[in-house]
Every structure is written in structure tokens, then in C-alpha cells.
Specification:
Blueprint: E1 14-16, E2 20-24, H1 30-37, H2 40-43, H3 52-69, E3 73-78, E4 84-95, E5 98-107, H4 116-131, E6 136-142, H5 146-154, E7 158-165, E8 168-176
Antiparallel strand pairs: 1-2, 2-3, 3-4, 4-5, 6-8, 7-8
Helix pairs in contact: 1-3
Amino acid sequence: MTRASPLRPGALDDFDTARLRAERLQPHHFDELRRMHCDAAVMTHLGGVRSEEQTTSYLEKNLKHWAEHGFGLWILRERGGGELIGRGLLRRLTVDGVDEVETGYAFYEPFWGRGLATEITAACLTIARERLGLDTIVAVTSLDNYKSQHVLEKNGLAFERTFLHEGSEAALFRIRW
């Protein structure tokens, strides 16, 4: 995986897409993450509802990622709106001992089926390629999450293989440039 020169601090803190506003994860987002982690529909394909302790650990892990790498998880809102509607990410992930960068997303159910997952995935792939200088990105889905797999395929990622992810068999998708 090629690496670009380090980003200037704050270079990827915030960005807009046609319909979304992305902002860097911050400690004050805990309540929003907690709400998302308690939503059974959102968490169906993300390992299930999480406890408060799991949310705390998730927040700490993702804040540390930002500090170490200059990119990570973004909180998503509709442009011009204030309510959190989801999250998107570019994050380092070890897959079978190999250091990768993954893209991913999650939205509240009222925002499903509107093309927002496709939109944030496209934006994350552009950032990975153009701003981070990466030549490959992966994505992970549960084997039965056909809608997310379709989003990934629309963005040019292709199924590569199944693998064991966090104790469950998962599908690994990849794009190379």
C-alpha cells in the first residue's frame, strides 16, 4: 500500500458531499454514538447493540486512531441539518495479519435507501486515493448484508474472499487503483 506524505493537522477534519456534512469524531459525540449503538436496526450487521462500556471503548479507539493517523471516523449530518444521521469512516484494520485501510458507514433507518451510503463511500474512496495516496481500500460486511455489498460494488469494490472478523465469518471487498 503506498503512503502519501503526512497530512497537515486538521486536513480531513470536515468535508461535504452533495447531501452530507462530515465532521471529525470528537469526545462530545459520545451521546450520539451511544444512541446509534443502542439502535437495533443500525447495529443489525455491525455486531449487535453495544453496552455503554463498549461505546466508551469504541470512542476511545477511534479518537486514538485520529490522533495517530490524521483520519478516521466522521459523524454525518444532512447538509444544513443538525441531527446526526450516521457515520462514515476510513480506518486502519488488520486483516489476517496485513495492515489495510477500510471504508465503512452506518445510517439510521429513516436514511436508508436514499443513496447516502453510496455517496459517503464514494467520498471516502476519493479521500483515500487523492488525499492519503493509498492504492487499495477494503470494506467488510456480514455475509448476508446484500444491500451494503451492493453499495460497495456500485463504488467499484469487488468481493475478494470471506475471512474471520471479530469472531464471525465476514465478506472482504477491495478496490485497487
